[in-house]
Specification:
The relative contact order is 0.05. Helices cover 74% and strands 0% of the residues. The radius of gyration is 38 Å and the shape is rod-shaped. The longest helix is centred in the middle third of the chain and has 22 residues. By secondary structure, the chain is mainly α. It contains three helices and no strands.
């Protein structure tokens, strides 16, 4: 058999709808697998801590001092 006789057979195989569909499906699967392998999750955005207002900080510290004074008064 000569090489000229192979061309019509190869052409008919490559233009078959099943071969074209298989090539498209394999390409999509390989592309999706490549995406999954190379996927990098974005780092989470860190939210800043809310600062307590100055008045609340003073109130909290005075409460602590007041509670320690009352406990020291009762122990005497």
């Amino acid at each position: 058999m000569q090489i000229k006789e192979y061309f019509p057979t190869i052409l008919s195989v490559l233009t078959d709808f099943r071969v074209i569909g298989t090539i498209v499906v394999v390409f999509l699967i390989v592309t999706f697998a490549s995406y999954v392998v190379n996927y990098k999750k974005k780092p989470a955005v860190k939210k800043g801590k809310k600062k307590m207002p100055a008045t609340a900080a003073k109130t909290e510290s005075t409460e602590i001092k007041a509670s320690t004074e009352t406990t020291s008064d009762t122990t005497k």
